[in-house]
Design a protein that fits this description.
This protein is of the alpha+beta class and 188 residues long. The protein has a single domain (18-181), classed as Mog1/PsbP, alpha/beta/alpha sandwich (Protein Transport Mog1p, Chain A, 3-Layer(aba) Sandwich). Helices cover 23% and strands 40% of the residues. It contains three helices and 13 strands, in the order αββββββαββββαβββ. It has helices spanning 2-17, 71-87, 146-155, and strands spanning 20-24, 27-31, 36-39, 44-50, 55-61, 65-66, 94-99, 105-115, 118-128, 132-140, 157-158, 172-174, 179-181. Strands 3, 4, 5, 6, 7, 8, 9 and 10 form an eight-stranded antiparallel beta sheet that branches. Strands 1-2-11 form a three-stranded antiparallel beta sheet. It has a two-stranded antiparallel sheet with strand order 12-13.
Length: 188
């Protein structure tokens, strides 16, 4: 009986344990371990490839910065500084400003660009609480990794100061509005 209960526990918990909890600056997030970390001096990146299909995706995380207090102003500055100069994107395909979690707002914009004469997509996700802002860039040449991007974005949790430690995923419970720690303190 004990073996059977352990087996059931492992089966139902596998999706929870298959995500790796990471932290960077003021953000904690979950990411599939198949994504390979590429640490840089001023930012952090993760990359995944499918060599058989010649597809890839990257997630770039930038440190938090002071916010102007206006999400539109913050976003346009991030778009110009991080996207326009580096990727020279085409016409915006999609753009949205919405409420996120715990009084944070999220703005996202998707645009095409070309690299080595191959069509790519660049997505900027900027989140702000009116005091701080943090930007994330998603790059890909395929829709294959769309769910990974969505899972990453929905897993983001923000503290008010850079987090020194991460809370193991098994010690957290996902609720519709936020991650809630169980028997742990979180920097808020």
């Amino acid at each position: 009986m004990k073996f059977f209960l352990t087996f059931l526990f492992l089966i139902f918990c596998h999706p929870v344990f298959s995500q790796s909890v990471q932290s960077f600056d003021i953000a904690t997030f979950s990411l599939n371990p198949a994504w390979k970390k590429e640490a840089q001096q001023d930012w952090l990146a993760y990359r995944i490839e499918n060599p058989a299909k010649k597809t890839y995706a990257r997630i770039l995380l930038y440190p938090s910065l002071p916010s102007s207090g206006n999400p539109e102003t913050d976003f346009q500055k991030e778009w110009n500084d991080l996207i326009v100069t580096q990727y020279k994107p085409g016409t915006t395909i999609n753009e949205n400003l919405s409420d996120y979690k715990n009084a944070w707002k999220a703005k996202i914009r998707v645009a095409p660009f070309q690299h080595n004469q191959v069509n790519q997509a660049v997505i900027l996700l900027m989140l702000t609480d009116g005091k701080k802002k943090m930007s994330f860039i998603f790059l890909t040449n395929s829709e294959e990794f769309e769910k990974d991007f969505e899972d990453f974005g929905s897993s983001l949790v923000f503290g008010s100061a850079p987090l020194k430690t991460t809370i193991p995923l098994q010690d957290m419970v996902k609720s519709p509005s936020a991650w809630l720690p169980i028997d742990k303190m979180v920097v808020d």
